[in-house]
Amino acid sequence: MKPTDFADELGEWLRGDGPESDIVMSSRIRLARNLGDFPFIKKCNDVHKASIESTVCEKVTSHSDLADTVFVKVNDLEELERQFLVERQLISREHSESSGARSVAIDKQEVFSLMINEEDHLRIQVMKSGLDLEKAWERVETIDNALEENIRFAFDSQLGYLTACPTNVGTGMRVSVMLHLPALVMTRQIEKVFRSLEKVNLAVRGLYGEGSQAMGEFYQISNQITLGKSETDLINDVSEIVPVIIGYERKAREYLINESQDDLHDKVSRAIGTLQNAHQISSEETMQLLSKVRLGVNLDLIHDVQLSTVNKLFLRTQPAHLQVLAGKKLSTTDRNVERANYLRRHLNSSQGKSDSGEDLFV
Amino acid sequence: MKCQKCEKPATFHITELTGDEVSALHYCAECADKYLKSDSDDEPVAEEVGTAITKHLKIDQTADELHRLDQKVCPVCGITFYEFRQSGRLGCPNDYEYFQEELNPLIMSIHGETNHVGRRPARGDDGMLMQQIEVIRLRKEMTEAVEREDYELASRIRDQIKQLEEELQ
């Protein structure tokens, strides 16, 4: 199976359902693990990396709990295919751009992905649509248990799981929830929210994680510390704060509806108008406008577009997806034209249609 | 990784979207601050480990001490403290022990704690780490033997590794 075969699917995190899915895009938990008998990646030579890759591949494919898994050798992929996986959040940008033997194991539903030879030997990641950290953790625990039956990870009785970067030591766990917060941005309250999060040891990042800026008003909230608290406590820290932020966002939406509905309606309508009529458009502008449309759909200001259609367009108008769907490499200019075509086609023809999916390819 | 504008370690990694192109920028705290303030969007950027290390060392070490510290080499994986400071990444599990004195205050400032209270390997963890580190050390010796074209030694070490690995299973 080629990674781009996933193009027909939407993937777990963009399914657009799950609890609080009007604001919460996805919940994600990842664990960092290292094989105890190999140096960390920084000091691995090619032989080490290849042995780690084959050891893990063998243990994963031979375990019944992990049977439904597609193994992809990232090192053998074209740049476009790698970027495609990054856009689907199945591998990190770092994993895509590094060198040497490295792979990713993905289950067919794209709920779980296991990066091999990323910053750590193993990065176990589980993603759920909406706010569902509990289910994500259940799955992560199962996978970690399954792997631990056959692999001895680097573990110190005082420091816990040892990781390449001391920021991950202990549980090796990062819990993150991706939120769509357009109303807090529009009402200029987002900074206040960030400042309050920093005080409770939570980090805020943009859509694509580590060090990236937020695109289209999507923000990722995650735990800052990984040591000195149990996994359950770390999950609770995030679980407790997310409903508070959801509450702020809902209040801000209510405020916009009550105090400046004309303004808001205008912004949202211009956004959909541009997307339905543009003949060339960048991915940045697309993201920003789709973000407004998403808000409009959630607030019933736009009636003829489905939330799942908006989610689909978010993913499929990104550079690698666009090229995979077009079946050829495209220059930036050509992509901008192709993207506008794609948006016009799907926002004008799919109106009111059901969400069966396949009509999106016509 | 070094800052793209000066010689300091890059601790801010910024994803910039211009038109359709996504580009990554790597700056130190100062240059990042300048760069971000010149931008209309005033987004917060995550502080990473490099900043924490540098901050930490600036307070506690003189230039001489820092220079000496930078030369310290882990006997198991061969990483220098300087390499770690530059990249924020350690070379092997033994570094946590070997650079303990430097790492513990850093870990304390990142996590506010130095004791793990979460999950533990179901099969227990008695003494495993020491043996695993021994395997890593042997792997390095084997690589060096191969580089010297001392294949006899290399194959003896390989057998040793095999035996230890079996005990570890």
Can you give a write-up of this model?
The complex is a heterodimer of chains A (362) and B (169). By secondary structure, chain A is α+β, with helices and mostly antiparallel strands. Chain A folds into two domains: 3-252, Creatine Kinase, Chain A, domain 2; 261-352. Helix content of chain A is 45%, strand content 15%. Chain A has eleven helices and ten strands. In chain A, the strands form two sheets. Chain A has an eight-stranded antiparallel sheet, with helices on one face. In chain A, strand 3 (103-107) and strand 4 form a beta hairpin. In chain A, helix 7 crosses helix 8 (283-298) and helix 8 (283-298) runs antiparallel to helix 9. The two termini of chain A are 23 Å apart. Chain B is mainly alpha-helical. Among the domains of chain B are: 1-39, no CATH class; 124-169. Helix content of chain B is 55%, strand content 8%. Chain B has a two-stranded antiparallel ribbon with strand order 1-2. In chain B, a hairpin with a 2-residue loop joins strand 1 (12-18) and strand 2 (21-27). In chain B, helix 2 (49-60) crosses helix 6 (100-111). Chain B is globular and about 55 Å long. The chains are: A alpha+beta (362), B mainly alpha (169). At the A-B interface, helix 4, strand 6, strand 7, strand 9 and helix 11 of A face strand 1, strand 2, helix 6, helix 7 and helix 8 of B.
The appropriate CATH architecture of the largest domain in chain A is: 2-Layer Sandwich
Structural class of chain A: alpha+beta
Which blocks of ≥5 consecutive residues of chain A have pLDDT under 50?
209-213, 350-362
Oligomer classification: heterodimer
Our count of helices of chain B gives 8
Record field, number of beta strands of chain A:
10
Shape annotation of chain B: globular
Identify the CATH class of the largest domain in chain A: Alpha Beta
Major sheet of chain B: 2 strands, antiparallel
Strand composition percent of chain A? 15-25%
Say which CATH homologous superfamily of the largest domain in chain A is assigned: Glutamine synthetase/guanido kinase, catalytic domain
